[in-house]
Design goal:
Ribosomal Protein S8, Chain: A, domain 1; 3-stranded antiparallel sheet; GMP Synthetase, Chain A, domain 3; alpha+beta; single chain; 4-stranded mixed sheet
Length: 221
């Protein structure tokens, strides 16, 4: 749902950037340049030149997801239902998506060579969609989401030769359809969308910071 008609979107963006995200960074003791990117289906607040990129991302991106959740929660409380913001850090989401695609393709090649199904680890809905989309056009293969993990509550993607998926799996979720399980209501990864607009630098940028390396440091254990 879009922002209320009486509130300009740029006002909401300014609130999210200056009144929510930047105080969070100060509380964490981290300096970062906040880059505002407008895309057709959403607005990305990308944390660049951060002093502690690994801390911001967290293990498996959990800290970044938590920041994104809180930003959207506080914006929603202030303005009501609006479009969700996407939070990125130093291109992490694109690297994560690329790694997930490589994992899916490696598993698909294993299925083609062995003729036996391969089941991936439990994933959130957005990651399962990435796997389904990546393998959608692979000849002789199909993907379904099965077996809700009792510890995480998330489903796994199973890659199988065409026709070998058991019809007895009650939790099966055909590729290309929206998942039926209610998981985290996080926005889709910004890497899944194609940029359509210009980059808008934050007016409250931190100056004099060196750019981080292309590969972020390993997350803290």
């Amino acid at each position: 749902m879009n922002a209320p008609a009486h509130v300009e979107w740029r006002t909401i963006v300014r609130f999210a950037e200056q009144d929510v995200l930047r105080p969070m960074l100060r509380g964490l003791g981290i300096d970062a340049f906040i880059e505002i990117r407008h895309r057709e289906e959403g607005t990305i607040l990308s944390l660049e030149h951060a002093t502690e990129t690994g801390r911001l991302i967290g293990r498996d991106g959990h800290t970044l997801e938590a920041i994104q959740y809180l930003v959207n929660l506080l914006v929603s409380q202030r303005f009501g239902a609006t479009r969700a913001f996407l939070i990125d850090c130093a291109g992490y989401r694109q690297r994560y998506k690329s790694g997930l695609e490589r994992q899916a393709k490696a598993a698909a090649r294993e299925v083609q060579q062995s003729g036996r199904p391969v089941t991936l680890e439990p994933m959130v809905a957005a990651d399962r969609r990435t796997v389904h989309t990546t393998l959608r056009d692979w000849a002789g293969l199909e993907t379904v989401s099965v077996d809700e993990d009792p510890e995480t509550g998330m489903k796994r993607v199973q890659i199988t030769p065409v026709g070998s998926v058991s019809s007895a799996l009650p939790t099966a979720e055909p590729a290309g359809q929206e998942p039926t399980q209610q998981e985290s209501d996080l926005a889709e990864s910004p890497a899944e969308q194609e940029e359509t607009d210009d980059v808008e630098p934050s007016p409250s940028m931190t100056e004099g910071k060196d750019a981080p390396p292309n590969v972020f440091p390993p997350p803290e254990q």
